[in-house]
Amino acid sequence: MNKKMVLTGLFSALLMSACSTTPSNHTTIIQKPNSQFEVTGLGKTELIAKNNAANAANKSCGKLSAIILNEKTTYNGVLQGVVDPQTGKLIQAATNVLGKLSGTNTDISNDDDYQTTLSFQCK
């Protein structure tokens, strides 16, 4: 019963993910006390989310340098809570290969699967 629910959920996620996209540089910057800022970057991969957050931090500082005080990256994709992160990466890779072999888009990852939050100061 549980396996059927998981497989049904994965299949549904496959179908829905083909239609959902967000900007690849989606970021939000918040000013905190003591000249500190917090930026959240989203991305399809952990690296893209970190790069989006870091680029937004650097851009917000202008000619000054962004000094990172804290960093936190979380996975918020369709497989969160269903399987461990490593298995999720394997499932995503397998669906990509199957999609390429079949000529269809079966990518289950979204542009906001990973979220990186940076706390920083401009100096």
**Shape descriptor:** elongated
DSSP strand count = 4
Helix percentage range: 25-40%
Radius of gyration, Cα only, in angstroms? 17 Å
* Helix-strand pattern: HEEHEHE
Which tags fit this structure?
123 residues, alpha+beta, 3 helices, 4 strands, 27% strand
3D architecture notes:
With 123 residues, the chain is α+β, with helices and mostly antiparallel strands. It has one domain. Helix content is 40%, strand content 27%. Strands 1-2-4-3 form a four-stranded antiparallel sheet. The radius of gyration is 17 Å and the shape is elongated. It starts with a helix and ends with a strand.
Furnish the topology, listing elements before pairings.
Blueprint lengths: L1 H16 L9 E6 L3 E8 L2 H15 L5 E10 L9 H18 L11 E9 L1
Antiparallel strand pairs: 1-2, 2-4, 3-4
Keywords: Signal
Summarize the structure in short.
This protein is an alpha+beta fold.
